[in-house]
């Protein structure tokens, strides 16, 4: 389950914060820890990671001086959470101009209305049928390297770093390209499933017209 979603600039300005489904004390604690982690993130930090707490996980995605955050139950699939954040990121950066959301004079929560899109997406990613469909793509990527995972207490209290690791970052870029290719292939498969019969019928009719009237 996805409990909360936030969009924050790396300078600490909150642009969007979704409403929680449940006001659980441990979720609120995780959100407080997430704010401490945000202070450690820079442009050289690992671009995506999952930070595990006792009951929940904080997933983040860095892109263009923005940090997209999702807090989920610990059992929620990491790759699915990252797919969710990638969708949120793509929609936000398509909906608003870069010069606007990076404006140094911007006020907190200026884009609160974007929460409507977040809520719709969250319901989709929590719907069993949707996660089954997205799971199909995950099954195609079993050889993909794991999303960088750390224990949140190690980061907060033991001084672990979130700086990029060369090998990991390189693999993530390769995995991203593979992910896109797999997504394109699945989209083509779905299109063929939906339109394949009609395409075959049109080809057959075209062949018959050619045989009877043109030859």
Protein architecture, described:
This protein is of the alpha+beta class. The chain folds into two domains: 2-163, Beta-Lactamase, CATH 3.30.450.50; 165-215. Helices cover 53% and strands 17% of the residues. The chain has seven helices and six strands, in the order E-E-H-E-E-E-H-H-H-H-E-H-H. The protein has helices at 25-38, 78-95, 98-101, 115-126, 128-139, 152-157, 166-214, and strands at residues 2-9, 14-17, 48-52, 56-63, 66-73, 149-151. A six-stranded mixed β-sheet has the order 2-1-5-4-3-6, with helices on both faces. Strand 3 (48-52) and strand 4 form a beta hairpin. It starts with a strand and ends with a helix. Its main location: endoplasmic reticulum. It is a single-pass type IV membrane protein. The chain crosses the membrane at residues 195-214.
How many structural domains?
A: 2
Low-confidence stretches: 140-145, 165-169
**CATH architecture tag of the largest domain:** 2-Layer Sandwich
Portion of residues within helices: 40-55%
Largest β-sheet summary: 6 strands, mixed
Question: How do the SSEs run, as a string of H and E?
Answer: EEHEEEHHHHEHH
Structural class, by secondary structure, is alpha+beta
Q: Averaged pLDDT, please?
A: 77
Q: Report the count of strand segments.
A: 6
CATH-assigned homologous superfamily of the largest domain:
Longin domain
GO cellular component, one term: endoplasmic reticulum membrane
GO biological process, one term: protein transport
Subcellular location: Endoplasmic reticulum membrane; Golgi apparatus membrane
Keywords: Coiled coil, Endoplasmic reticulum, Golgi apparatus, Membrane, Protein transport, Transmembrane, Transmembrane helix, Transport
């Amino acid at each position: 389950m996805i409990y909360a979603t936030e969009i924050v600039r790396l300078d600490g300005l909150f642009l969007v914060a979704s409403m929680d489904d449940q006001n659980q004390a441990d979720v609120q604690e995780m959100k407080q820890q997430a704010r401490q982690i945000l202070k450690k993130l820079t442009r050289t930090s690992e671009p995506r990671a999952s930070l595990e707490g006792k009951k929940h996980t904080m997933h983040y995605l860095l892109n263009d001086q923005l940090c997209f955050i999702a807090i989920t139950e610990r059992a929620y699939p990491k790759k699915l959470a990252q797919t969710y954040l990638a969708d949120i990121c793509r929609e936000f950066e398509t909906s608003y101009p870069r010069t606007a959301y990076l404006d140094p004079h911007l006020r907190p929560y200026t884009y609160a209305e974007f929460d409507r899109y977040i809520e719709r997406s969250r319901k989709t990613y929590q719907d069993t049928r949707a996660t089954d469909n997205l799971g199909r793509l995950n099954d195609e990527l079993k050889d993909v390297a794991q999303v960088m995972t750390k224990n949140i207490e190690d980061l907060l209290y033991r001084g672990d770093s979130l700086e990029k690791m060369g090998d990991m970052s390189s693999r993530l870029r390769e995995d991203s390209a593979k992910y896109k290719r797999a997504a394109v292939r699945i989209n083509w498969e779905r299109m063929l499933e939906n339109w394949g019969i009609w395409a075959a019928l049109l080809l057959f009719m075209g062949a018959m017209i050619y045989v009877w009237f043109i030859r």
